[in-house]
Design a protein that fits this description.
The chain has about 120 residues and is α+β, with helices and mostly antiparallel strands. Helix content is about 30%, strand content about 25%. It has 2 helices and 4 strands, in the order H-E-E-E-E-H. Strands 1-2-3-4 form a 4-stranded antiparallel β-sheet, with helices on one face. Strand 1 and strand 2 form a beta hairpin. It is rod-shaped and about 90 Å long.
């Protein structure tokens, strides 16, 4: 039995780590939404904004209940930080729905009728 040794060509240099693909807004958004899904926020993710500031992509994602801000390093494509904040609902001082108005009108009318007959019965 003969064994043969094969030499690698000495002129070929292979990189130790594969080159990372350059990030863009779409790929950063996919990284951010994928991360949010992995940590348990699966439903209704709506990316709102992506910006690049000093080699850090900042992605803002909204759902019904919260707003997430995820920072992704543009060089090594790692999430450097994230922040999840409850959504601040802006409400006016008087927030009355039409249903509430109808209920109040019905109660007021019923009280008017009851008091009218009560005063009539008492002779007032």
């Amino acid at each position: 039995m003969a064994t043969t040794l094969q030499k690698k060509p000495s002129g070929v240099v292979t990189p130790a780590t594969p080159q990372l693909k350059r990030l863009n807004a779409e790929s950063v958004t996919a990284i951010a939404t994928g991360f949010l899904k992995r940590i348990g926020h699966k439903g209704g993710l709506k990316p709102k904004k992506v910006s690049l500031e000093e080699e850090i992509y900042i992605v803002e994602v909204e759902t019904k209940k919260f707003t997430a801000i995820i920072r992704v390093d543009a060089e090594n494509q790692e999430i450097t930080s994230y922040e999840i904040q409850p959504k601040g609902e802006e409400t006016s001082l008087v927030s009355v729905s039409p249903k509430t108005v109808m209920i109040i009108v019905v109660i007021a009318a019923a009280m008017h009728v009851v008091l009218h007959f009560a005063f009539k019965f008492l002779g007032l």
